[in-house]
């Protein structure tokens, strides 16, 4: 009994001590430093593989796992080639990385006891940042902030850095670099470039190198304000065409239509709404004006599901991220119910299908938004309300009901046409019957 009371007393003392250390400003600073997270089990349960790197690990979370272990020897070789080409000792890079070790460690949520050894953590940061830098330079064939790999650097039959390696490894490395748990702070790459060049690296060089490697071609010219948090953050901002950090956007006061689920693309089309590609490919560029819904063009391929799931997880876990990608996915899930909706959007040039059947694309979008929490003030809420308001107009509802009832099936259409034809014949027959009667009645009687 005394032992239990002693334990309780210790717990009370411990809580009282922590209570005295509560500081709002310190808590704000602590959460601001964090940007790389472990994805909770409640998110992973629907598709665990979407958050698990398959070829290479970046950062501490998946380092040493069996599936990614073979890439470790290639990471080590990339570090050696980088050091040889830079003509600077490893100690300079290690010392510079040590100066920001606190910032790098605090970027990760709960790195665990395994990485409390500072030397081990720093060697991981230097090695992984070097490999990321080398693979991006080799793949884009562009030097950023210093010399890049060339034909005389890596062996022509190098398993990773040869043209053969670029063809067969880079697509999987790109996919692994878009996983939230598999990130390296871009601050680490910034440090390497600064020491390599002998002068402070420009943040735009690091961001643009990531964009050239990960981003779509039209995003390469995008200039981001400040150094990105990590590759996933830069990629997300490129999809949204965000020059600065993303901010929560307000959609205005809700109205009576904001709680309605938007109709499918086919139903919207039948209600008189027309679809067209947006002027830009930004996921935010969704507009509704005078019965025309403009949507950004999207290429759906094998990596689309992993990409969106990790972007949505980042938005869910990083308070300052915003909710634009989640809002886009939720909107697309609403207007895509079946293969017919995908086929319609494909015919309008909005969806480019690289996964096979339209049914597979519909299934993909329908699965993406499972258990997704949508911000009530999402950036697309205003578009949602305006589309529903348009559909609620009497003439549009009448047209939709007419099409839905009589034009969905060719037999229903033929029945309607036959009914109209018979009605016209009946009217004509009645007219021809009545007209002679009145004509006779109106004729003058003979004198």
Describe this structure in words.
The protein has 447 residues and is mainly alpha-helical. It folds into 3 domains: 47-222, no CATH class; 265-401, no CATH class; 409-447. The chain contains 19 helices and 5 strands. The protein has helices at residues 2-20, 24-33, 41-44, 72-86, 90-99, 101-106, 118-140, 163-177, 186-197, 203-214, 231-240, 265-270, 304-317, 324-335, 339-347, 358-368, 381-392, 394-406, 410-442, and strands spanning 274-277, 287-289, 292-295, 298-300, 351-353. The strands form 2 sheets. The chain has a 3-stranded mixed sheet, covered by helices on one side. Strands 4-5 form a two-stranded parallel ribbon. It is elongated, with a radius of gyration of 31 Å. Mean pLDDT is 83; it is low at 142-147 and 244-258.
Per-chain topology:
Layout (H helix, E strand, L loop, with lengths): L1 H19 L3 H10 L7 H4 L27 H15 L3 H10 L1 H6 L11 H23 L22 H15 L8 H12 L5 H12 L16 H10 L24 H6 L3 E4 L9 E3 L2 E4 L2 E3 L3 H14 L6 H12 L3 H9 L3 E3 L4 H11 L12 H12 L1 H13 L3 H33 L5
Parallel strand pairs: 1-3, 4-5
Antiparallel strand pairs: 2-3
Helix pairs in contact: 4-7, 5-7, 5-9, 7-9, 7-10, 10-11, 13-14, 14-16, 15-16
Give a quick precis of the structure.
Keywords: Membrane, Transmembrane, Transmembrane helix. This protein is mainly alpha-helical and about 450 residues long. It has helices at about 1-20, 25-35, 40-45, 70-85, 90-100, 100-105, 120-140, 165-175, 185-195, 205-215, 230-240, 265-270, 305-315, 325-335, 340-345, 360-370, 380-390, 395-405, 410-440, and strands at about 275, 285-290, 290-295, 300, 350-355.
């Amino acid at each position: 009994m005394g032992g239990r009371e002693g334990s309780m007393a210790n717990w009370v003392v411990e809580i009282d001590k922590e209570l005295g250390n509560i500081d709002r400003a310190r808590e704000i600073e602590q959460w601001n430093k964090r940007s790389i997270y472990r994805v909770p089990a409640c998110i992973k349960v629907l598709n665990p593989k979407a958050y698990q790197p398959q070829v290479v690990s970046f950062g501490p979370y998946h380092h040493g796992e069996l599936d990614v272990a073979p890439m470790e020897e290639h990471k080590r070789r990339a570090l050696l080639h980088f050091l040889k080409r830079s003509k600077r000792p490893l100690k300079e890079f290690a010392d510079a990385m040590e100066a920001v070790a606190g910032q790098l460690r605090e970027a990760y949520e709960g790195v665990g006891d395994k990485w409390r050894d500072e030397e081990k953590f720093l060697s991981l940061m230097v090695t992984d940042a070097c490999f990321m830098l080398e693979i991006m330079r080799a793949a884009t064939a562009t030097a950023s902030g210093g010399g890049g790999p060339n034909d005389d650097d890596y062996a022509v039959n190098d398993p990773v850095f040869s043209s053969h390696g670029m063809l067969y490894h880079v697509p999987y490395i790109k996919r692994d670099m878009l996983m939230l748990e598999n990130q390296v702070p871009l601050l680490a790459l910034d440090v390497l470039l600064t020491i390599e060049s002998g002068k402070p690296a420009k943040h735009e060089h690091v961001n643009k190198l990531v964009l050239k490697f990960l981003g779509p071609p039209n995003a390469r010219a995008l200039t981001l304000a400040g150094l990105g948090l990590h590759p996933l953050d830069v990629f997300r901002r490129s999809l949204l065409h965000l020059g600065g950090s993303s901010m929560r956007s307000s959609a205005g006061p809700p109205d009576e239509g904001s709680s309605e689920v938007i109709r499918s693309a086919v139903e919207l089309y039948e209600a008189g709404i027309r679809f067209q590609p947006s002027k830009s490919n930004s996921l935010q560029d969704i507009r509704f004006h005078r019965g025309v819904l403009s949507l950004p063009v999207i290429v759906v391929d094998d990596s689309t599901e992993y990409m969106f799931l990790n972007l949505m997880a980042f938005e869910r876990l990083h308070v300052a991220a915003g909710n634009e990608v989640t809002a886009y996915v939720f909107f697309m899930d609403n207007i895509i119910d079946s293969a017919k909706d995908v086929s319609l959007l494909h015919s309008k040039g909005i969806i480019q299908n690289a996964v096979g059947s339209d049914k597979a694309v519909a299934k993909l979008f329908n699965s993406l938004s499972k258990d997704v929490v949508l911000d009530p003030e999402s950036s697309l809420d205003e578009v949602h309300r305006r589309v529903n308001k348009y559909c609620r107009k009497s003439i549009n509802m009448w047209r939709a009901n007419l099409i839905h009832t009589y034009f969905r099936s060719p037999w229903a259409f033929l029945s309607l046409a036959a009914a109209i034809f018979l009605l016209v014949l009946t009217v004509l027959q009645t007219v021809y019957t009545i007209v002679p009667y009145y004509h006779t009645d109106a004729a003058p009687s003979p004198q």
